[in-house]
Amino acid sequence: MSDFFDSLSRRGHDKRLEKVSGTVRFDISDGERTDSRLARIDHGDITVSAGDAPADCVVTVERAVFDAIVEGRANAMTALLRGSLAVDGDPELFVLTQRLFAEPADPAAATSAAGGRGSS
Amino acid sequence: MTEALVRILDGNTFVVSDARGDIEASATDPTGLFSFDTRFLSRWVLTVDGQRLTALSTDDLQYFESQFFLVPSTGTVYVDSKLSVIRRRQVGDGFREDLTVLNHDASAVDAVIRIDAGADFADLFEVKDALKKKGTYGATVDDGRLVLTYDRDTFSRTTTISSTEPPEIDEHGLYFPVRIAPHGSWSTQLQVVSAMFGLHGRELRPREPAGERRREMLGDLERWLAEAPRLACDWDSLSATYRRSLVDLAALRFAPAIAGGRTLPAAGLPWFMTMFGRDSIFTSLQTLPFTPELAATTLRVLGDWQGTRVDDFRDEDPGRILHEMRYGELTAFQERPHSPYYGNADATPLYVVLLDEYERWTGDAELVREFEQEARAALQWIDSYADLQGNGYIAYQRRNEQTGLENQCWKDSWDSISYSDGRLPGFPRATCELQGYAYDAKMRGARLARRVWDDPGCAEELERQAADLKRRFNRDFWIEDGQYYALALDADGAKVDTLSSNIGHLLWSGIVDDDKAPAVVGHLLGPRLFSGWGIRTLAEGEARYNPIGYHVGTVWPFDSSFIAWGLRRYGYKAEAARVAAGILDAAEFFDGRLPEAFGGYERELTRYPVQYPTACSPQAWSTGAPLLFLRTMLGLEPIGDHLIVDPALPAGIGRIELLDIPGRWGRIDAFGRGLVDVDLGPQLRPQLGDRAPGKGS
Prior knowledge:
heterodimer, A: about 120 residues, alpha+beta, Nonspecific Lipid-transfer Protein, Chain A, five-stranded mixed sheet, 5 helices, B: about 700 residues, Beta-galactosidase, Chain A, domain 5, Glycosyltransferase, 2 domains, five-stranded antiparallel sheet, 17 helices, about 30% helix, about 25% strand, disordered C terminus
């Protein structure tokens, strides 16, 4: 989990979030303990801090589910529908938050992959 | 049961009952109370002293409200009942039902009024495909309410039924032993509330404050109608169709959880009361001159949900615009990929087309700037992930082999893409209209890059790509012998040589070389494709042609409406008017509510349009079709800060006026006059499509 937030910090700026300014807090529970991280997005600039400061959107989720989501093994929307993740506050921000879970794509890689598929 | 079904709806909550107001759903039957793709009531049956009721009349008061007048069944043809019953039902968060029992006798009556209630909590996909449930059911009495529950792991859905008059309750329903005074009445208000519970028992959806809801909905509908342009014309059925379309659009508006109360068009009742990329975009394009806010929400929500990763289960790629979102159990447990599912090849270029068209009408450059990254990612998708064959064309091939869609174009049934002799091509498939959309997206993206994003280099590059695509397309898809464009290129890059309505979309996109347009128009209005009502999806004479085949011979009003727009784009005004007249004539037979599709039979043969058996109705892009036909008949085109009006009315129509058209100019009126003398009786107007095409003013 901390790997994810570390890499988010390192990402620094994400073009796909340039229209977003807001805060998303992740309350990640592990039995009794809850670990809170605040992601602040300012026109695509991302900073992460620990703590349970108020946020525009709060995502509450168990650690195992959260780990699965950030590793791409699970999906935030189905977790929400299934009742294993909760969202409070701005739901549009929750949708955009899913962009945090996917590294920015490399279009050049896609082009060569697509070309490769076609020419094989 | 062939009895008429009564439907009321509000966004993605809807109730389908019989004419008595009763619901007795079987596993595969789409009756019940549905919300967020789940059936929250599958049984709702009213009895008086154990007797079922008979409907005297049923009134659809509003799209969200209906009323049933009933008497206890007597078993004879005579109705001489001492009691009568009025049910008035309004859909909201679930529904509310005002139940009134009237005693017409001079003496008091004792009776037991009973409502049987049950819920199978079926996912709409299960209703469609008759699948089995995996969770457990419960029914409990809690504080004078009946609570029906369904649980599977942490997934929890409930239906709560309460009454203002205290009921007796058992697990199969509510009942009221009542005494009604001579010439008196008894009434109660039943409330059915559907709920989806998430983590720690929290409601998944924000709940609307109860109380003033009906007034709000009525006020909202009146506002909606008042804000749309007014139509004045000497074509009575067009006026009726126009009003019906506006009301149905209001009903089909759907507020996705993320849109802050703003709405976009859901696709259609009963199966598609959800967000669809393609349908929402096409409907938004049709309705831009009338209700531009639908387009704004569509752009915002589809942009927010744009794909970000490569996910084979969802057929998701970075930049791809979603196909379909679902909220039911099968989606929640990933037994279906609709969270959302991205498997379509057209919504992504069409997203850029809509963004440009929206700006041209509204002047809202702010939104175009806000979604610049999404539009660029969409354009990027066309050249990268969509180019499956590495030949510079958009093609599709599902990666989810179990539950993904085989055909990812608007004709998405399994047999829609075939060679002339009936064989089905392999994958990937590059259907022709996709290349048109890509061309248009590049041209329009270039305009936005130059005007709004301040990136002339990008604009030039996009225009260069578009010109190259057009040149290649006219070489690679053109069938010289037949003088039309191939339906698709197959996996080997060879032509799928079928004549289809898809060539009409090419006119709309502008990818057709000018010297090829006359032949294309000739086919579209020729005997193989034009039925007299509209343009067949597949031409008569093709091996798979079937006048009641879903995408292989029926006429789709939405399809014809975009083809008419394409005809106008290439200067074929009279032909566009002729197509408009055919479909709008057909609308008259459907009381102004066009179904998604109707039979492709020759008009001369049937004299009325034959409805396709399981067509969805109302359906958003059929509802939007009359609006787009109005635009094409009046020749409305935004140029700079002006709205150009260049009318060409069908033969037999003297006058069409559209007043207070909203846009970047404020409000503008458009007047169309026909050339012919018009002498219309009040009822017996000759059907327009029977006449020769005429020219407008």
